[in-house]
Inverse folding.
């Protein structure tokens, strides 16, 4: 049976703006030949794409597409808006600040000053950024920033708004 992968090429322009080219590919369940490896394919795609674009390819990612778990919402809540969200800032093991923005963050979980309230829901989210010692014992996941440095502490949160990309 084949696995589906999402290969993403991140392109930067002369104004330092970035855009992502998403490409879906399939590979065998067992990758025995480098020609079947989505990462190898992504590198070849980048080499060929480089001749077709004026921008600079600055990152490549290959992620396996997985099924959504049962029990997620069947539709967005009526007041959801991807332009509204919460940005979480944290420090890493090398004391480098990093952040992630979560779109459509529930407004009832944000305090008036824009910081995340200390509810069970927020604590559950924070688990994803505090390392394997707080995850179930059989997981070996270590959340990191884009440099590969382990996330060690949440610094602050801030409610954020973005313009539509239409």
């Amino acid at each position: 049976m084949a696995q589906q992968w999402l290969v993403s090429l991140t392109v930067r322009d002369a104004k330092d703006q970035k855009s992502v080219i998403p490409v879906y590919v399939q590979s065998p369940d067992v990758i025995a030949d480098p020609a079947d490896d989505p990462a190898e394919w992504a590198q070849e795609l980048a080499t060929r794409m480089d001749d077709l674009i004026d921008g600079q390819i600055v990152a490549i990612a290959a992620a396996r597409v997985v099924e959504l778990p049962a029990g997620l919402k069947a539709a967005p809540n009526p007041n959801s808006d991807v332009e509204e969200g919460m940005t979480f800032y944290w420090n890493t093991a090398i004391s480098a600040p990093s952040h992630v923005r979560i779109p459509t963050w529930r407004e009832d979980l944000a305090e008036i000053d824009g910081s995340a309230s200390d509810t069970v829901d927020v604590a559950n989210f924070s688990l994803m950024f505090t390392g394997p010692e707080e995850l179930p014992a059989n997981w070996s996941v270590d959340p990191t920033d884009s440099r590969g440095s382990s996330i060690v502490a949440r610094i602050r949160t801030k409610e954020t708004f973005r313009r539509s990309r239409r």
Notes: The chain has a mean pLDDT of 77. The helical segments are 38-50, 120-127.
